[in-house]
Specification:
Blueprint lengths: L7 E5 L3 H16 L3 E8 L3 H8 L8 E5 L12 H12 L5 E4 L6 H10 L4 E4 L12 H20 L4 E4 L6 H17 L5 E7 L8 H4 L16 H15 L6 E10 L1 H7 L2 H9 L15 E10 L8 E10 L24 E8 L3 E8 L19 E6 L1 H4 L4 E5 H9 L9 H15 L11 H16 L3 E4 L1
Helix pairs in contact: 4-5, 5-14, 6-8, 8-14
Protein name: Gfo/Idh/MocA-like oxidoreductase N-terminal domain-containing protein
């Protein structure tokens, strides 16, 4: 996959994810004739930025530092930054922008670049209003922000890509292509789904106040971290079912696990003392974001919530209280890879009596050790397909080792391949550079954010929420 040489990249934010993922992509771009034009980062991160680029061959042509003040609830970029960026864009030094800041600042940068006709690639979540887990108005703002950004993108005829890598992951593309074909041919919807994800994030009690990368102190947590991807899968299921019903109503019930509850669950004061020899206190604020989210969905035909109109039932169990390989009290320097994060991911989908598809991906170690593709290996990912083959044809049972297949395909990506999800991220990056069609564009994310808004609204109000799609 050859990268065109004319792209000139601005990177906004150099956190753990950007260092590991985007810098490696930009490095490959520069090696092929592209330009790393600008890095924008907080003034407080200057020493971290300088340390990172020490010894690196490829560095940005310019680094612009932004004062931290006003970054908690930013409404627009500062006048000083705008003036400098206007000059850089006027000199045609930027063709594409990657937004990798803490999510509460995403919107101001997207708005600025889109209005200057600069295509953007933004990390998930697209936006994250403060207080989502305790303030109903924040959930309304979440959906409204995305609608406004879609409008801005369309008005300026400038595309925004979203880093929702499962939309470009070969295993998930295969699963949803198979589902789509069956649903469309037999006019039977996806009738049941169960999704489980545990990402191995184990935060110590004091970190709920201090973390800036995947924070909790702004009133959101797991759902705005890795959980976003799995609500996006629910949106994909909705999209598939819309093949046979234009109008669907989704009923959502959400329960969130907060840090204080989990601390009590594991008898935190005694546990941390026993294994780490540390005295701790419960993270008691009700305004911390969620660790876990337990979500139930019911889809109904034709916007009518009646028993006879039931289309689909499903649930998501999204955990940061689950299995982790973290074994030290002090937080690691690299909180993205190096702090005990391991993935356990499970998907189970039925199309009535016609087909069952399952995805299983279970890591036992954070970094590459032993058999990479078997259960427990870093690249383990198997898909099981069971078909009523006397009716729909095909094999009655298939087991596909996508982890191994993707690794074989990835050998041509020397210097970029960091794992199967990273390869999917690279596919989005490449399509972003080439302005190619993708299911990972912002217009495809409206259903996802409608569902996210419903999840937080249900959790705050402690009742079912109906969403018309």
């Amino acid at each position: 996959m050859k990268i065109l040489a004319k792209q000139k990249i601005a990177l906004v934010g150099l956190g753990p994810h950007a260092k590991r993922i985007y810098y490696s992509f930009i490095k490959k771009l520069v090696e092929n004739g592209g330009v790393f034009s600008v890095l924008i980062e907080l003034e407080s991160k200057k020493n971290v930025v300088e340390e990172f680029f020490t010894g690196q061959d490829i560095k940005p042509n310019q680094i612009l530092y932004v004062v931290d003040r006003g970054q908690i609830t930013p409404s627009k970029i500062s006048e000083e930054l705008k003036k400098r960026m206007d000059s850089i864009i006027g000199n045609k030094e930027i063709t594409h922008a990657i937004i990798a800041t803490e999510p509460k600042a995403h919107k101001i940068y997207l708005d600025y670049f889109l209005k200057n006709h600069i295509p953007c690639l933004v990390d998930k979540p697209i936006t994250a209003p403060i207080g989502l887990s305790y303030n109903k108005s924040a959930s309304l703002k979440l959906e409204q922000d995305v609608k406004e950004l879609i409008k801005t993108s369309n008005k300026n005829k400038t595309q925004t890509y979203v880093q929702v890598q499962r939309r470009e992951h070969p295993a998930y593309i295969f699963i949803f292509k198979t589902l789509r074909e069956i649903v469309e041919k037999y006019k039977v919807p996806i009738t049941y789904f169960n999704i489980y994800h545990s990402d191995g994030t184990w935060s110590m009690p004091s970190e709920f106040l201090s973390r800036e990368n995947h924070p909790y102190k702004y009133g959101y947590g797991k759902m705005m971290h890795s959980g976003y991807h799995f609500v996006d899968l629910v949106a994909w299921i909705v999209e598939t079912n819309k093949l046979i019903s234009d109008k669907i109503t989704v009923e959502t019930t959400a329960n969130l696990l907060k840090p204080e509850t989990h601390y009590n669950q594991i008898n935190g004061s005694k546990l941390y003392k026993k294994i780490f020899k540390e005295d701790t206190v419960s993270p008691k604020s009700s305004k911390f974001g969620e660790i876990d989210a337990y979500l139930n969905f019911s889809f109904y035909f034709d916007k009518k919530v009646k028993k006879n109109n039931l289309m689909t039932r499903g649930n998501l169990d999204l955990l940061q209280s689950g299995f982790s390989k973290r074994s030290c009290f002090a937080i690691a320097k690299d909180t993205y890879k190096g702090n005990g994060r391991v993935r356990h991911e499970y998907l189970n989908i039925n199309v009535g009596p016609l087909c069952n598809i399952q995805l299983h991906s279970y890591q036992a170690n954070e970094l590459k050790k032993g058999d990479l593709f078997g259960v427990g290996g870093e690249e383990h990912l198997d898909v099981y397909i069971f078909k009523n083959n006397d009716i729909i044809g095909g094999k009655p049972c298939e087991i596909i080792d996508f982890g191994g297949q993707i690794n074989d395909q990835a050998k041509k990506f020397s210097g970029v391949y960091l794992g199967q999800n990273e390869l999917a991220r690279y596919t989005i990056f490449d399509k972003f550079l080439r302005n190619k069609s993708s299911d990972a564009t912002i217009g495809k994310q409206l259903i996802t954010n409608k569902l996210l808004a419903a999840v937080y609204k249900s959790a705050v109000q402690k009742k079912k929420v109906l969403t018309k799609i």
